[in-house]
Here is the input.
Amino acid sequence: MHLRKLGVNGPHVSELGLGCMSMSGMYGPTDRHESIATIHAALEAGITLLDTGDFYGMGHNEMLIGEALKEIPRDRFLVSVKFGAMRDPAGNWGSYDARPAAVKNFLAYTLQRLGLDHIDIYRPARLDPAVPIEETIGAIAEMVQAGYVRHIGLSEVGPETIRRAASVHPISDLQIEYSLISRGIEDAILPVCRELGIGITAYGVLARGLISGHWQGATGPGDFRVHSPRFQEGNVERNLALVEALRDIAHRKGTTVAQLAIAWVAAQGDDIIPLVGARRRDRLSEAVGALDFNLTPDDLTLIEQAVPRDAAAGERYNSKQMAVLDSEK
Here is the structure.
């Protein structure tokens, strides 16, 4: 697997990253043994970037990753961690807390759960409207100085916030949703990142499974897609019609819909690292297979004709979540 540099100031990482969120219940029930085996398979395949959040499963995801990495040499992987999302004992979501004191508190618990002495990339999960981004980034910069963090990232923020954050400390990358059916970053966010030398770690490259070619329905109350607009009746049928158009192209190229969608994101620039949310080894193997072929200019044209920009039905989050996304303002 080839490496790509994550922005001008970031580390070299594998050209594909593993997003571990789905291993902690966000998409329904999970299998601990299979999750750990999938992390090991990713490392064996050459994936070096593992992405998590301290609020995934209220710490479960970090402990799972820590268990999986216990016997793995530290120079074989990098861990990217998001922080700041508040949850209650019932698992309900609350606000965000990115105060400097909270940053250091969250980091201390993250290091303990992962069993590591430093985090490779640390980032606020969202913009805290009550805390200037300069204060949050300044607190992480202190942790860089102290050796607990190597690089600082951002997540789901817009151009103005990106500029303000970068004025305090170099930013390695912006983590943000980007896929064939979520292309909003192309207007203003991606140009600003490229101007400032900030990489992109793209999550949702398969739109939470919607454009994977495998969608069979949400799995129940533990699966947040039950409430996601793009998966609602009336929207999901229109979105799956786009998948069938992609399937025709994939068939002609001898690949799968998921591989085509991942390869499209990877083809948008060497500064973009797709994060795949595989929680099973077979799905991981399929995702890694997206790197085995190159999309020609003609292929890219056909794909974008099959799935025109803004063709998706429904927003990527519900209205309450969309209202607090700095990246959507």
